[in-house]
Amino acid sequence: MATQKKRYKAIIDNQSYTIIGPESTQHMDRVTKLVNAQLNEIKAISPHMDTEQAAILLAVNAISDQLKKQEQLLLLKKKNDELQQKAMKVVELENRIQRIEAIEVEAKEVLERTGRADKKIRNHVEAQQILNEERKRTIQQKASQG
């Protein structure tokens, strides 16, 4: 859907301009105020400049500022992407920790159920080995009953 274009009457350096665009009146009021302020500042610093020269200098300054902001935006987007990748890694690590903790809890339950509650589990590899042994024992029992 096309953006609704609006007419805005701006007074810049005592000249009337009709600007057509999608921006709000409040936005255009701020733009007009800023343009006038910067033109007045340029003219105060360099009183020998005529309005056209001041306007050109203002345009150059505005484009320079725009390029700087675009560079900053690109850097921020890059940092954002890096942070999102790090966040995904953190989530992945948290999920791994939860799986390891679940394995350790299940292994402790197996040890308690089999009367070996006094055995200490030193790491998740030992916990997985305990579960594997229990599953193997369960499969062997089912095979011998069947």
Automatic annotation (TrEMBL):
One record GO biological process: division septum assembly
Keyword Nucleus: no
Keywords in alphabetical order: Cell cycle, Cell division, Coiled coil, Cytoplasm, Septation
Subcellular location: Cytoplasm
Name of the protein in its database record: Cell division protein ZapA
Organism: Enterococcus saccharolyticus subsp. saccharolyticus ATCC 43076
Quaternary structure and interacting proteins, as annotated: Homodimer. Interacts with FtsZ.
GO CC terms: cell division site; cell septum; cytosol
Gene3D superfamilies in UniProt: 6.10.250.790
Residue stretches in coiled coil: 66-113
Keyword set includes Heme: no
